[in-house]
Amino acid sequence: MRKLPPLGALRVFEAAARRMSFKLAAEELNVSATAVSHQIRQLEEMLETKLFERGTRQVRLTTAGQVLFPVLRDGLDRFEQAIADMRRQEASKVARLTSTVAFVAKRLAPLAGSFREAYPEWTLRLDASHRMVDLEVDADAAIRLGGGDYPGLVTEPLFADRFAPVCVPRLAPASAADLKHATLIHYDWGTLRRHDARAPVWRQWLERAGATDVEAGAGLSFTDEIHAVQSAIAGQGIALLSLTLVAEELASGILVQPFDLTLESDRYDLVYSPRMADRPATRVLRDWVHAQFSGDA
């Protein structure tokens, strides 16, 4: 439980500090200057420190006041912006869903039309980003790939991902040993999973397949997962890719999965703030996402 002074007193202090005047703060808040002075004095007593040095015709912040003011100002500015965004969203009925660049491109974007069909009065806004956005300000919900540990957020499991070698049909090898003659396509996990022994990489798959004489690090490497997918589709080699991201290509026959052996990866989860759970946009996204991916679990 937060131990804070009354928010009304903090708001009065912020206005007086911003205007450097009890009189101007009173006009802004539509109260008397005496009421402003009384609120600030009560706040000082509660904090056991002076916030203003009072002169005959002006006031100035003490050192403590200078520390408190910018924190309070920025917090109120953000609070005001969040309320404005919420009201604007409620008026326009925009549902904001964020996920990784690859998942938005390969799974969500092709499904966007179904959202419009199910909720014609709503607009779906997809945010493709690798950054962890604020799920109370920047988006209503997120689909995240990871271990399912998102403190402070509601987490609803969707499905687990798996990785396997995929390629165009003409490059399909007859056995794992034939991979020594193939160009291997890699997705460079970089800092995302650099120290994760379970990261789905060629070295791990080849060891599981018993193909220890295949050079695991050779071939083509991409820092963007979408580029690795495109390289495989272009017939540039055999890629170890997320079966989730290439599901459409596998279903259409553009790509094939020549081996049954797969590597387990992380889980896709729908996550959102518990404080936003009852908002219409969050409920709409929750229903739509589960309807789209219930068969993938």
Automatic annotation (TrEMBL):
The keyword Transcription regulation appears for this protein: yes
Domain of life assignment: Bacteria
Alphabetical list of Gene3D superfamilies matching this protein: Periplasmic binding protein-like II, Winged helix-like DNA-binding domain superfamily/Winged helix DNA-binding domain
Domain HTH lysR-type: 5-62
GO biological process: DNA-templated transcription
Swiss-Prot/TrEMBL keywords: DNA-binding, Transcription, Transcription regulation
Pfam families linked to this entry: HTH_1 (PF00126), LysR_substrate (PF03466)
Single GO term (MF): sequence-specific DNA binding
Classification via PANTHER family: GLYCINE CLEAVAGE SYSTEM TRANSCRIPTIONAL ACTIVATOR, HTH-TYPE TRANSCRIPTIONAL REGULATOR
Family: Belongs to the LysR transcriptional regulatory family.
Record protein name field: LysR substrate-binding domain-containing protein
Organism: Ensifer adhaerens (Sinorhizobium morelense)
